[in-house]
Structure formats: structure tokens, C-alpha cells
């Protein structure tokens, strides 16, 4: 299956989940037009409290629908947009991509992956036990964060469900994703 956009979401408020939209407009250097997390500087409230001047490396949250497939049989009914992502993907292993990977979404929009989403306690408020379900350990005992990736908008454009995703890898050596 070719990588594609399954759904797009936005919210004007700083709630946990986002609302499904027919399409979203990505604005270069800012994020999703009208979304509470759009901006050149950090918009997540906990991060603003620490340093409101830091750059916003979390303009767009992308989450792979395959995570929902994993969570449902474990007793966690989760659907697109409910974990706060702006773009839900299908057919792309987001977590395996290196830092700096560009994703062309549809005809013109492009995002550059900055790192992993670091899940917070809001996940357990949404569904008790979900935080542990989106964290794992690899063979070396390191924490594996499965709650998607964060990106910045590197080219403006409209994104809608069904749009193709083209992966553009950065030059080697590749750097693995770290939490941002």
C-alpha cells in the first residue's frame, strides 16, 4: 500500500483531541492554519511556561493509523484525531524515519520531521493506561515512543484525506528521531 493521508485534524483550542476537517492548510514556518499549536515559537502550554521564545519544532503532529490497529485489540478504542494529531497517515513507518526527513503531502505541502512526540500525562486522562500502551522498550531497554512524530512546515499547501505521501530522506549520515 502506498503511503497516504488517512485524515486531517485541527483545533483552535488547547484540548487533547482535534476535530476532523475536510482539508487543512499548512502555512510555511507556522503549522496548520487555525490550529492552537501553530506558530513560529513553541505553543504547547507546558513548554511556553518553561521558555516561550524557543522555536516551535512541533507545528504539525503526524500519527500512523497502524498504532490504532495495535491499540484496539488491547482495549484502547482510539480513532483518528483523538490523540491530538493533525495528520493521520497509513502505509508509512513514521517512527523509522530519520530526523530531517521531508514528507510531501499531496500536490504542494511539505513538512520536515523534527522528532518524536513525547507523550504526556494527558494521554492517561483521555484513556487510563494509554500512556503505557504508547511506550515500549527496545532490545537494549531504551524507551520507544510510539505516539507519532512532530514536524515543521517547509512548504505551504492544502492537505486532505487520500493525498499521497512522498518521502524525501535527508543526506546521510541519518540521525535517529529523538523526542522534541
From TrEMBL:
<dbReference type="InterPro" id="IPR005302">
    <property type="entry name" value="MoCF_Sase_C"/>
</dbReference>
<dbReference type="Pfam" id="PF03473">
    <property type="entry name" value="MOSC"/>
</dbReference>
<dbReference type="InterPro" id="IPR011037">
    <property type="entry name" value="Pyrv_Knase-like_insert_dom_sf"/>
</dbReference>
<keyword id="KW-0812">Transmembrane</keyword>
<feature type="transmembrane region" description="Helical">
    <location>
        <begin position="147"/>
        <end position="169"/>
    </location>
</feature>
<dbReference type="InterPro" id="IPR052716">
    <property type="entry name" value="MOSC_domain"/>
</dbReference>
<protein>
    <submittedName>
        <fullName>Molybdenum cofactor biosysynthesis protein</fullName>
    </submittedName>
</protein>
<dbReference type="GO" id="GO:0003824">
    <property type="term" value="F:catalytic activity"/>
</dbReference>
<keyword id="KW-1133">Transmembrane helix</keyword>
<dbReference type="GO" id="GO:0030170">
    <property type="term" value="F:pyridoxal phosphate binding"/>
</dbReference>
<feature type="domain" description="MOSC">
    <location>
        <begin position="18"/>
        <end position="168"/>
    </location>
</feature>
<dbReference type="GO" id="GO:0030151">
    <property type="term" value="F:molybdenum ion binding"/>
</dbReference>
<keyword id="KW-0472">Membrane</keyword>
Amino acid at each position: 500500500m502506498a503511503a497516504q493521508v488517512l485524515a486531517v485534524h485541527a483545533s483552535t483550542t488547547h484540548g487533547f483531541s482535534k476535530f476532523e476537517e475536510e482539508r487543512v492548510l499548512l502555512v510555511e514556518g507556522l503549522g496548520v492554519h487555525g490550529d492552537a499549536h501553530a506558530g513560529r515559537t513553541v505553543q504547547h502550554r507546558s513548554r511556553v511556561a518553561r521558555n516561550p521564545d524557543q522555536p516551535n519544532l512541533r507545528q504539525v503532529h503526524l500519527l500512523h493509523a497502524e498504532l490504532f490497529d495495535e491499540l484496539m485489540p488491547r482495549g484502547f478504542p482510539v480513532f483518528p484525531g483523538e490523540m491530538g494529531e493533525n495528520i493521520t497517515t497509513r502505509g508509512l513507518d513514521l517512527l523509522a524515519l530519520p530526523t530531517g526527513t521531508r514528507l510531501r503531502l499531496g500536490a504542494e505541502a511539505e513538512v520536515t520531521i523534527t522528532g518524536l512526540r513525547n507523550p504526556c500525562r494527558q494521554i492517561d486522562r483521555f484513556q487510563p493506561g494509554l500512556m503505557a500502551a504508547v511506550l515500549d522498550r527496545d532490545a537494549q531497554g531504551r524507551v520507544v515512543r510510539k505516539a507519532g512524530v512532530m514536524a515543521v512546515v517547509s512548504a505551504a499547501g492544502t492537505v486532505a484525506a487520500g493525498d499521497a505521501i512522498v518521502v524525501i530522506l535527508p543526506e546521510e549520515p541519518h540521525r535517529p528521531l529523538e523526542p522534541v
